[in-house]
Amino acid sequence: MAALVLVNGKIVTVDEQFSVRQAVAIDGERITAVGEDAALLTRAPADARVIDLGGRTVIPGLIDNHCHFVRATEHTEVRLDGVRTRAEALDLLARGAAELGDGQWLLTLGGWHEEQWAGDRRELTVAELDAVAPGRPAYIQAQYDHASVSTAWLDAMNAPAVIRATGRVEGGLVALNRAAAGFPAGGSREAGVRAAMAYCNSLGLTTVFDPGGVGVSGAAYAAIQAMAGRGELTLRVLTTLGAGVDEAAGAFAAKIRASNPFRGDHWYDTIAVGEIYHAPFHWDHAGRPPAPSAADIAAATKILTTAAVTGWPVQTHSVTTGGLTLVLDAYAQADKRRPIRPLRWSVTHA
Length: 350
Known about the structure:
This protein is α/β, with parallel strands linked by helices. The chain has helices at 37-43, 69-72, 86-98, 126-132, 151-156, 161-166, 172-180, 189-202, 218-229, 249-257, 279-282, 294-309, 321-337; strands at 4-7, 10-12, 20-21, 23-27, 30-35, 49-52, 57-58, 62-64, 106-109, 138-142, 146-149, 168-170, 205-209, 236-241, 268-275, 314-317, 346-348.
C-alpha cells in the first residue's frame, strides 16, 4: 500500500530500458510501483498523499563515491563553493562569523579558489579577515593549495614568523592538514552532521562513500553511527577502516583482523579498508612520489594480505606512476593469498 504517490511527472527509473514513467508510489523507504498516473491512483489507498509534480523530473538518489563527509562534520564552516566575487565572499564570511558562538573559529576548509571570482582575484588579507571576524581566529582555505588567516588565528596557533609575515599558510596537503589538526572542536557534532547532510541532500545525494583520510577523529564517526542508530540520518553514510599517518602497521593489521566489513545497516556501514592504511608506502601527490623503505613495503604488503585473507575490500590513495606501480605490485602479492577481484579492490586519485 502506497502512503505517497507522485503523479504528472517524468520518473526516470534507470531500469534496463531506461524507461521514463508518469508516476511513482512510495511506502516508507520503499518504492512500491512505477507506471502511469491513472493506474497508480486507482491502486492508492484513500488516505494516500498525492503530489502533482507539474511535469518535473524525479531521479533516483545520487551516490557520491568519494566524499569526505565525516571530516566535513568536524567543524562549522562557511562554504564559498560557487561564490562569484571577492566582495560576495567577504560578505558571506562576515555573516558567518556573526552567527558563531563564543570560542568558535571562522573556517572554510576548501571547495573553492580565488580563480572562480570575476574581477578582483586577490587572496584575502589579514586585515580583511580581522575586519569580518574581529578578535576571532579565521582560517580560509582555498582548495588544498593555501589558506588566508587572521591575526587571532596567528596568535592562537603561535604561528611562525614566515606565516605572520604573509598571513598565508602554504605547503599543500601536508601543511594544511597539520594546521587543521590544531583547530578546536567546533560546536555540536550532531549539528555539524545535520548541516552536512542538509547540504548533500540539497544536491540530490542520498548516499556518500567516505574514504577516510587523515585528521578525522573517532568521535566524529561515533556521532554519525549513534545518529544512525536513532534513525536520525537523512543520508546513507558508508565509511572505511583507515590508519592514522603514524599508526604502526602491525597494530592496523590487528585492527583489520578484529573487524568485519558490511556489519552495519543501509544507513551506516564500514565497507572497505583505506584510503590510507600505511602512509609511508603509498601516500603521495602529483609533485611527490612515495619513497618507501623496504620495511615500509613489507608492512604495507602485510596489511594488504591481511585485508585479502579476511575478506575486506580495499581502496588506496595513489596518484603518481611510481606510486601506482608500488600499489599494484603489493595488490598482486595479496592476490596470491586470496583472489582480490571478487573483493573489488581499487585505487583512487590515480
